[in-house]
Amino acid sequence: KTVFVSGASGFIAKHLIKSLLSSRNYKVIGSIRTKEKAEKLHLLFKNDPNLIFSVVSDISNPNAFDESFQKHGVQIDYVLHTASPLFFTVKESCEKEILVPAVNGVKSILHAIQLYGPNVKKIVLTSSSAALAQAKDDATPGLTINEASWNAITWEEAKKNPYYAYYGSKTYGEKYFWEFINKHKSRFAGTAICPSYVWGPQTFEQDIKSTLNSSCQVINEVLHTKPGSIVDNDYCGSCIHIDDVVKAHIKCLEDDNLAYERLFLENGRFTLQSIANQINEDFPNLKGRIAKYIQGIDEEKFKTMATLDNRKTRELLGFQFKSFKECIDDTVSQILKVEGGL
Ligand code: NDP
After folding, report:
1. Is the distance from the beta carbon of residue 19 to the nearest atom of ligand 1 less than 6 Å?
2. Taking burial as the number of CB atoms within 10 A of a residue's CB, which of 61, 216, 237, 314 is the most buried?
3. Which positions fall inside the NAD-dependent epimerase/dehydratase domain (predicted)?
4. Residue bearing the CA closest to ligand 1, atom 15
5. Tens digits of residue pLDDT in 112-137
6. Is any atom of ligand 1 closer than 6 Å to the C-beta of 40?
């Protein structure tokens, strides 16, 4: 079977590609912004003959995926759409740089599938917990966030800053996805995967740079705090290990029971203090060299937050998620190994 993976250069996509190829059940066509990036990735994937790339330079373009699907569409059985802006530095316009590419990315890949993908059976959208709730919902004790929750952010609000824009981009992208899937139910099965912060190692050690992909950068920054400093305990979220995100995506291709579901992937809350504490505990040689260990204040913070309930997702997936400790340890050990600190 052949899987089209959009955004092949991304943190999650590279893991997906590695796993698809190593299972030996799949061929992969990855969309990527430039030829140069494709060449670099070919090297990292050791020129695997089951992997090819197709250049899609900007998903803001309403017909971004047409050419790629005109060329390869007939071969494609499954689509994993991961490409979407996940950064918070905007030059001029949140709408132009975050909202439009995310939503047009979803629209253009679905239209290309419809026109040029006669054999596509399943489409999986990498959405986000950002499509379930926004920061103010998450900070509402008594509120439960689950697979049925929707972020109520308006397009106007989403234009205000890059964080709101990210929330809006995932919400409006996923809304369009369901509109399309519901309209074309007889032709395509669809699943939306909504992870919270995705952590864990990079696919390749070469991907360890001073700044990592947005989610792993959160851990990287705590790891590089000044000795004895204090981190922001108000920075709060929930997390999931990259291995579980990969397993969930691939299970969507293989298990018909996951069709038309929204999967909420998270396995526990954290604040930056939880990260600092876990690093202090698990990497004793860093004690005194990074931010302080402070017990319990993260748990106090969690009490002021909404309840996260993903029992439905856990039941549907049927496997145990990796722990917060594994998320931190796996991310940190790889960084330290590459930086020569372990
Ligand atoms: P990355 O930033 O590592 O990957 C994003 C990918 O999208 C890159 O390949 C990037 O290409 C591509 N992309 C972004 N903007 C454009 C554009 N305008 N045109 C073409 N391609 C574009 O992020 P992740 O791998 O972490 O995220 C992948 C998906 O998972 C996203 O949809 C994200 O919203 C979702 N997600 C991620 C979470 C996380 O914690 N990591 C949590 C929840 C959801 P390039 O690098 O060349 O710019």
Report:
1. no
2. 216
3. 3-255
4. 85
5. 999 999 999 999 999 999 999 999 99
6. no
CA of 13 to the centre of ligand 1 (A): 8
Q: Give the nearest ligand 1 atom to 198 CA.
A: 40
Mean pLDDT across the stretch 81-91?
96
Q: Can you list the domains of the chain with their CATH numbers?
A: 2-201+238-268+307-322 (3.40.50.720)
134-166: pLDDT as tens digits: 999 999 999 999 999 999 999 999 999 999 999
Nearest-angstrom CA–CA distance, 33 and 55: 5
**Residues with Cβ < 8 Å from 46, sequence gap 6 or more?**
none
Return the HEC string of 70-107. HHHHHHCCEEEECCCCCCCCCCCCHHHHHHHHHHHHHH
What one-character-per-residue DSSP string does 256-325 give?
GGGTT-EEEE---EEEHHHHHHHHHHH-GGGTTTSSPP--SHHHHHHTTSPEE--HHHHHHH-SPPPPHH
Q: Is the CB of 33 within 6 Å of ligand 1?
A: yes
Q: How far is the CA of 8 from the centre of ligand 1 (A)?
A: 9
Q: Is 18 a catalytic residue?
A: no
Query: Dihedrals φ, ψ of 195, to 5°?
Result: -85, 155
Q: Identify the active-site residue in 27, 122, 170, 322.
A: 170
Distance (Å, whole) CA 36 – CA 38: 5
Instruction: Report which of 57, 55, 38 is spatially closest to residue 47, judged by C-alpha positions.
Output: 38
Residue 214 CA, ligand 1 centroid: distance in Å? 9
Query: Could you give the CA distance from residue 206 to residue 334 in angstroms, rounded to a whole number?
Result: 11
For a pocket test of ligand 1, which of 84, 219, 245 has the largest count of ligand atoms closer than 8 A to its C-beta?
84
Give the per-residue pLDDT at 24.
83
> With a threshold of 0.95, does the pTM exceed it?
yes
Task: Tell me how far the alpha carbon of residue 191 lies from the centroid of ligand 1, in angstroms.
Answer: 18
Residue tagged 């005109």 (tokens): 70
The length of the chain, given as a count of residues: 342
| Contact 195 CB / ligand 1 (< 6 Å) | yes
279-299 mean pLDDT: 96
Give the residue among 124, 102, 120 at the shortest CA–CA distance from 247.
Answer: 124
